[in-house]
Amino acid sequence: MAFVVHLVSLPFPHSSETILFSLENNKRRGVGHHFHSRVSQWLRRRRASVVVARSRLNAADLRIVDSNNKNKNKNDNSDTQTRIIEIPVTCYQIVGVRDQAEKDEIVKSVMDLKNAEIEVGYTMDAVVSRQNLLMDVRDKLLFEPEYAGNIREKVPPKSSLHIPWSWLPGALCLLQEVGEEKLVLDIGRAALQHPDAKPYVHDLLLSMALAECAIATVGFEKNDISQGFEALARAQCLLRSKISLGSMKLLSQIEESLEQLAPACTLELLGMPHTPEKAERRLGAIAALRELLRQGLDVEASCRVEDWPCFLSQALNKLMATEIVNLLSWDHLAVTRKNKKSLESQNQRVVIDLNCFCKALTAHIALGFSSKQTDL
Questions:
Q1: Mean pLDDT computed over 221-245
Q2: Residues 120-131 as b or e (16 or more Cβ within 10 Å = b)
Q3: Burial category of 280 from C-beta neighbours within 10 Å (exposed 0-12, middle 13-18, buried 19 and up)
Q4: Rounded Cα–Cα distance for residues 155 and 206 (Å)
Q5: Residue 74 CA from chain centroid, whole number
Q6: Alpha helices, DSSP H, located in the chain
Q7: Is the separation of the CB atoms in 110 and 138 below 8 Å?
Q8: What residues are paired with 69 via a beta bridge?
Q9: What are the φ/ψ torsions at residue 121 (nearest 5 degrees)?
Q10: Are 113 and 174 in contact (CB under 8 A)?
Q11: pTM, whole model, 2 decimals?
């Protein structure tokens, strides 16, 4: 019996908009540089000797297979049920080489992966399954033509692998090492919906979080701050969803980076065109701005905005009058300006300076006239 898990119908545990702007007071510190620079170094180290083959298969082809293998034992007649998962990847993808790669290239890649340093946090079972799968895939490519294919006879390599459930953590570990982030996330999401995945949740979530970190790195390298921020936030969510992953240093690094990047990401999202498909992300950005403003006015140490007049002025320039009024009520503005001198006397930063105050005042007046609301 076999059944297909359709990935398109499996929602992510939390939408990126929900977790994108979770600006909590994370007290853990100690890492001085931005996370994306560390991940870039990590990726270069992990992939330096691997030819990355991008995803060519549809991850929606993931199948969970029940195989009833009745193996007659010489001593008894007991039946053994083996749980197998079919994953939509080729052996070439597992070891990170191009299709129809030469045997020496395959052997070199396998040896590099075998000797590579495993990311901290995986269980010993995952490490063992990774090595077992690596050797199994090597043998299939070298000695079993159906898995290797034949370029001369135009026979493609077998497009899927049947592996024991216990090897799935090793498979995702290898796939994220060689750059198959999308496959890692798609297969991981589908597998987590199945009860057989329960013993392997820790390792599956870790591979998915590392894949999101790799996606974040690509976003930062393209100067797409919001893409990188969202990927880091998804990685944070994955790590937080399992208690055993909560103490990882990776999580504290991600949380610090999210705090550092929140202001820049907020401005980038507010500057996006006002289109229906971006409406939810804009609401999230305004919510983030409101939270940053609260942190700034409360003089919280976790707030990473260094130049408040400049930051808030840029943010207000990207908002409509209605949004500014909802962000800064008149009573709020009056109290803030009233307390301005006391803040300055305490040598504290001024969050809403005269320029920002005038912009907010103009928004209130403009909205009041346009909507004929005398109280504005």
A1: 93
A2: ebbeebbeebbe
A3: middle
A4: 36
A5: 50
A6: 16-20, 35-47, 91-95, 103-115, 124-143, 145-148, 168-177, 181-192, 201-221, 225-240, 249-270, 279-297, 308-317, 321-327, 330-338, 340-345, 354-371
A7: yes
A8: 80
A9: 120, -20
A10: yes
A11: 0.75
